[in-house]
Every structure is written in structure tokens, then in C-alpha cells.
């Protein structure tokens, strides 16, 4: 939801809300007739125009060159068996859903979610790490705080900085502030890799063998903005890297009837989707670019004695 400048601005956005609400009703009526495999609902972005939503609620900026692209850094799949379904949430390896607020910082939340899950997988402990640390301190790596970034730039910062704070030590503010990193309360990573671009089979393999993976999508469609439940499927989004605008985290995959699906964790609080999670079509031509820019951290460690765990 926006903060309005004056009464006129509030009235303008009330009309935007009414238009979105009417579109939500129409979509769900058509979903009832089987035209769409998912439903939508009013959420915190309902008073925003499409442009305001994309500038405020997303945060992946493809103009920042992807750097994990040489052959040694690319995951192309394994030779072992990969099951038809796998869900890291059910295995307790995914931390709680967070809320980026009116800050285009999905790049930070997606990277942090992948790091947090790697810590759970390796230690059995859940730690909330600081997205605010990335927003405030990674400008030298090319990120732009609440104006966007990319997960690989976030990983670069953690590597070059020698660590990352916990949320308890460095809480989230939803806007860019001066950096005040505290190295005595840090998690560290030694590297990061990308998954072969556009290859959903390699991505499925990585999710199973590595863990939750940071991905980027074109989140422009109305249906994604207001997604509530069902399998999100759209022909209105691009799979080209230069059209990607939002980062999230794949937490698993499955088969629903005849549809292959991804499970994704968003950073829009529990008011979006199914308590903050969504289901997206898999093997639909790399729909919305979900396999175009997938990355994950390596060598994740933390000083758990100095961090709040749960």
C-alpha cells in the first residue's frame, strides 16, 4: 500500500484500487469456468498501477551484468536419479516468509533465502539473516538498495565482505540506510554458482541435489501481482533475461495431475499466494523466465553460537 501525498492522490489511487478489484472479480469468474488454473485476490499492491507495482514490489534488475557465467560456475545437472517430486518446505529446510515492503529488494530476499536454507541443510538450525545488511552495504558490488539488484551481486558482497549479519543484529527497515555491518555476528559463503540458463531439467536437478534456488522471473502479469491460489500460468510474461524484474526462491517441484509445477517462496508477506508461497507451471517453455537466471551460494557457514536460531 502506498502513502498518499494528499487527498487528490488518495482519490486517484482509490480509483486504481477499484479497477484492480473489478479485474480480480472478472478473473475469478473466468477461473470458475476453467479459463485460468489459478485465482487472484486483493492484497497490499491493490492500490498501485502496474508501473508503481513493478517499481516498488519487485527488485531484480537485469541491466546489472550476470557474473556467474563461466563454465566452472555453471551447474548442468547430475548423473544420479532425481525423483519426480521434492519439497524442501516439508523437510523443514526453508525459513519463514518475509516482507520486503515498498522497497524493490527482492534480489536481497531471494539470495538470503537460499543462504538460510543452505545453513538449515548443513546444520539443522534456522537463522534469519539480514537483507538490510545487503541493501545498505553492497553498493560497491553494483546493487542499488531499494531500487534493485541481483542475487549474484549479493553473493559477491558476502564473499568480499567476509560475512553477513543476522536480522537480530541488523533488522530490516525497508529503505536504504548507512552501512553498519558487525563482523562478530556473521554468516559466510565461499562462492556461488548459476544453473544452466533456460534448462528446467537442470534446475529441477539442482533443487533436489543442492537445495532451494534463487531465481528471477518476469512478474509483470496482473495474475502474478494478485496471485492467491492454484497453478500460476501465463502467456503474458517473457523468459528473456532483459525482461526479468523480480527475484524469488524455488523451494521444490511436483506433478499436479498432468501439470509439472514449481513451488516458490516470495517476499511479499503471507498475504500473497498461499501464506506467502506460490505454485508455478514447470516445463512450459521456461515460463516467465524462471530458469533464465538461477543461482545458489556455496560454502555456507555461520557462527551459530552468536546468532539467534530456531
UniProtKB/TrEMBL annotation:
The cross-references to SMART domains, in alphabetical order and at most eight, read: Inhibitor_I29 (SM00848), Pept_C1 (SM00645)
Any single GO molecular-function term of the entry would be: cysteine-type peptidase activity
Question: Per its UniProt record, what Pfam families does this chain match?
Answer: Inhibitor_I29, Peptidase_C1
Q: Which InterPro entries match?
A: Papain-like_cys_pep_sf, Pept_his_AS, Peptidase_C1A, Peptidase_C1A_C, Peptidase_C1A_papain-like, Prot_inhib_I29
Q: Which SUPFAM superfamilies match?
A: Cysteine proteinases
Choose any GO biological process term that the UniProt entry carries and state it: proteolysis
Task: Pinpoint the Peptidase C1A papain C-terminal domain residues.
Answer: 82-298
Every Cathepsin propeptide inhibitor domain range: 4-53
Keywords, ordered alphabetically: Hydrolase, Protease, Thiol protease
Family as reported in the entry's similarity comment: Belongs to the peptidase C1 family.
Q: Which PANTHER family match?
A: CYSTEINE PROTEASE FAMILY C1-RELATED (PTHR12411)
Write the protein's name: Peptidase C1A papain C-terminal domain-containing protein
Amino acid at each position: 500500500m502506498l502513502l498518499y501525498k494528499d487527498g487528490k492522490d488518495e482519490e486517484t489511487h482509490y480509483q486504481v484500487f477499484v479497477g484492480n478489484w473489478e479485474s480480480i472479480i472478472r478473473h475469478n469468474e473466468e477461473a470458475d469456468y476453467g479459463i485460468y488454473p489459478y485465482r487472484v485476490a486483493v492484497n497490499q499492491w491493490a492500490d498501485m498501477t502496474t508501473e508503481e507495482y513493478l517499481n516498488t514490489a519487485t527488485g531484480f534488475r537485469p541491466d546489472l551484468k550476470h557474473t556467474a557465467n563461466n563454465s566452472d560456475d555453471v551447474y548442468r545437472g547430475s548423473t544420479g536419479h532425481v525423483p519426480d517430486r521434492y519439497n524442501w518446505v516439508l523437510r523443514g529446510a526453508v525459513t519463514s516468509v518475509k516482507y520486503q515492503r515498498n522497497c524493490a529488494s527482492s534480489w536481497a530476499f531471494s539470495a538470503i533465502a537460499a543462504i538460510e536454507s543452505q545453513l538449515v541443510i548443513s546444520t539443522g538450525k534456522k537463522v534469519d539473516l539480514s537483507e538490510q545488511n545487503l541493501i545498505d552495504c553492497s553498493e560497491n558490488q553494483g546493487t542499488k538498495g531499494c531500487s534493485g539488484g541481483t542475487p549474484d551481486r549479493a553473493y559477491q558482497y558476502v564473499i568480499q565482505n567476509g560475512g553477513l549479519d543476522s536480522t537480530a543484529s541488523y533488522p530490516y527497515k525497508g529503505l536504504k540506510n548507512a552501512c553498519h555491518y558487525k563482523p562478530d555476528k556473521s554468516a559466510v559463503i565461499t562462492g556461488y554458482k548459476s544453473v544452466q540458463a533456460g534448462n528446467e531439467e537442470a534446475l529441477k536437478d539442482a533443487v533436489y541435489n543442492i537445495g532451494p534456488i534463487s531465481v528471477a522471473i518476469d512478474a509483470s502479469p496482473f495474475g502474478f501481482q494478485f496471485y492467491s491460489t492454484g497453478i500460476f500460468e501465463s502467456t503474458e510474461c517473457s523468459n528473456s533475461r532483459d525482461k526479468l524484474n523480480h527475484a524469488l526462491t524455488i523451494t521444490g517441484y511436483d506433478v499436479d495431475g498432468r501439470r509439472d509445477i514449481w513451488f516458490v517462496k516470495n517476499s511479499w508477506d503471507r498475504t500473497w499466494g498461499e501464506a506467502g508461497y506460490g505454485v508455478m507451471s514447470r516445463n512450459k517453455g521456461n515460463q516467465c523466465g524462471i530458469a533464465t537466471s538461477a543461482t545458489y551460494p556455496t560454502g555456507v557457514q555461520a557462527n551459530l553460537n552468536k546468532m539467534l536460531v530456531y
